[in-house]
Amino acid sequence: MLGKLSETLRKITDKVANAIFLDKNLVESIVKELQRAMIEADINISLVGEISQEIRKAAFDERIKGIEKKEHIIKLLHDELLRILGKKKEIHLGKKEIFILVGLYGSGKTTTAGKLAFYYSKRGRKVCCVGLDVHRPAAAEQLKQVCEKINIKCFIESKEKNSLKIWKNFEKEIKQYDLVIVDTAGRDALDDPLIEEIKNLGKAVKPTESFLVIPADIGQAAKKQARAFKEALRISGVIITRMDSSAKGGGALTAAAEAEAQVAFIGTGEKMNELESFDPESFLSRLLGMGDLKALMERIHSVMNEKEAERQKKKLEERKFTLRDLQGQLDSMQEIGSFDKIMLMIPGLGKLQDKIPTNELEGQQERVKRWKHIINSMTEEEIENPDILEKQTSRIQRIAKGSGATSTDVRMLLKQYKMLNEMIKSQAEMQEGKIDQKMIMKMARKFGKKLRF
């Protein structure tokens, strides 16, 4: 997301840090690079101008000397970008919560309802969704399909055209859940009928959070939309969708902040687990190539099955980890996302992304698929006790032939299995959130050097 801006920010910080001294030509080249990247990211021109002037002012402030001046400019850039991204939206969940989603047609409310349900169900909440979009054809069916994919209870009435009646009909059943996510109807514009409908729903539903869903590709128009919805409906936060593919994502983020509407979540892909809580500090850290541990932990958490995690935890306590368990971990890695997305979140690897050819990243993903085929070609004895493969090389040849791989591929898998064992044994701690930066940095070194990511 925001690839060009991210690349430029990394180059600028490196250029400033490595400069022997800051002269006018260097400062102007830095400012122009930054302006170009920010404008391409659709950030408001006046904000771009403000940041440019602050950098010039700091660069030529005679009271700031030498290395201190370089550090001051880098910190200034960081602080200014953080300011335009806005403040972090805090969501404190009690015993009973109701989230209502509002927005215009095509903003992605229904998919986001599913993503939110998936996000919180993985965090131990008993979640359900309620479909109150009675205007869009097949809206109820779409929500039902989304919920079925993630095994979330969905309350809909396809034939009923009164959203208040639908809510009343399910009110008793909904009380069984500690988080209820309500999908509402949209319009082409925020008009009086839409305002009236959502106000009436608000009185009946009594939501604890009211989220405005906005697509990233509307850019700076997000400011007008966020402000209008906030004034009319008292929204408590914003969810920005399609951040993965939109060059205008910077406009939507900063525009929402300008409207004093805090961004709560961002959608970073089409999968149900590709929804992240928005933390400006962490987001900026990723843009600067410094990683985003929090988002990585959220992504890992979102693909783990609780029963499977418990089973693995028990096996780890007994120190009985097999290649079959490794195969499950490979499946989880693929669900987390592509390797280029994972790299951006790991400290130290984000800056390397541009230096690694795309074909190498794709090659690593193909290698993971091959490893899964290799494991499927093994006997249960070999899977449970892979040490016997090193003692009987004829087994390796048989497995390679049966999986369409080479003997080298099989040996590489066995080598990586031994090395990965230590990382996988930390999985129980990951599940419980007991993972620190030191552990992640250790993982980063292993991924970078041994796993050839």
What is the residue-mean pLDDT, rounded to a whole number? 81
- Count of DSSP strands: 8
The structural class is: alpha/beta
Strand order of the largest sheet: 3-2-4-1-5-6-7-8
Q: Identify the overall geometry.
A: flat
The portion of residues assigned to helices is 55-70%
The fraction of residues in strands falls at 5-15%
- Major beta sheet, specifics? 8 strands, mixed
Task: State the CATH class of the largest domain.
Answer: Alpha Beta
* First-to-last CA distance: 20 Å
CATH topology value of the largest domain: Rossmann fold
Number of domains: 3
* Helix and strand element order: HHHHEHEHEHEHEHEHEEHHHHHHHHHHHH
CATH architecture classification name of the largest domain: 3-Layer(aba) Sandwich
General description of the model:
With 453 residues, the protein is of the alpha/beta class. It has three domains: 3-85, SRP54, nucleotide-binding domain (Four Helix Bundle (Hemerythrin (Met), subunit A), Up-down Bundle), CATH 1.20.120; 97-288, P-loop containing nucleotide triphosphate hydrolases (Rossmann fold); 298-449, Signal recognition particle, SRP54 subunit, M-domain (434 Repressor (Amino-terminal Domain)), CATH 1.10.260.30. The protein has 22 helices and eight strands. It has helices spanning 3-18, 24-40, 45-59, 66-85, 109-121, 139-149, 163-174, 192-205, 221-233, 249-258, 280-287, 293-302, 306-317, 323-336, 339-345, 358-376, 380-384, 387-391, 393-403, 407-424, 427-431, 437-449, and strands spanning 97-102, 127-132, 153-155, 179-184, 209-215, 237-241, 263-267, 275-277. Strands 3-2-4-1-5-6-7-8 form an eight-stranded mixed β-sheet, with helices on both faces. Strand 2 (127-132), helix 6 (139-149) and strand 3 (153-155) form a beta-alpha-beta unit. Helix 2 runs antiparallel to helix 3, helix 3 (45-59) runs antiparallel to helix 4 and helix 5 (109-121) packs parallel to helix 6. The longest helix has 20 residues, at 66-85.
